[in-house]
Amino acid sequence: MPIRVWVIKQVDADILHLCGIGTLYHPRQRPWVALNALKQHGYQGGVRIASTGIVLNSRLFAALVPLDAMTLKGPSFACWEGRYWRISRVPRRSWEHEGRLVVDPERNGDVERLISGEDVSQIRDHVDRQNADPGVAIFQPGSGRAGNNRGVQGSIPRGPIRGRDS
After folding, report:
1. Spatial separation of the C-alpha atoms in residues 5 and 24, rounded to whole Å
2. How, if at all, do strands 15-25 and 46-49 pair?
3. Domain limits of the chain?
4. What is residue 74's three-state secondary structure?
5. Cα–Cα distance, 30 to 3 (Å, whole number)
6. Res 106 pLDDT > 80
7. What 3-state class would DSSP assign to 76?
8. What's CA 134's distance to the chain center, in Å?
9. How many Å apart are CA 113 and CA 94, to the nearest integer?
10. In angstroms, what CA-CA distances link 161 with 21, 138, 148, 158?
11. Which residues have CB under 8 Å from 147's CB, separation 6+?
């Protein structure tokens, strides 16, 4: 019997970063052992998210919650552990991200939804804009053709382009 869970990527003060519904993947473990470990927040193993077929290690997620332990209240809220949380949807590209997530609001008509994304502020903070070489790219006809490994500087000047019938 498959054990279905809510897959939570990150838990913030009032926001749950939710990947969606997943299924525990425990081929070498009895289902009742996996379920007991899950209820004690000690499950270690694989998680198959949605119907993707992708199995990810449970250590990538902050929480795996049995379906009956959390209730969604519309697209933006959930009730879990006796309190209400805002929901931020985590897109597929961020499921394997091991760093912190940030929230971006997305407005669709009158409805505002939250979407999670990778926090790149630390990378941005390490860029020295004063010493960054803006660089100049010069594109010349024929410089991008296959077999021309000499780059832009060593490209062969070409004549005008002619049609096949010329």
Report:
1. 7
2. antiparallel
3. 4-121
4. coil
5. 11
6. yes
7. coil
8. 30
9. 17
10. 56, 19, 18, 8
11. none
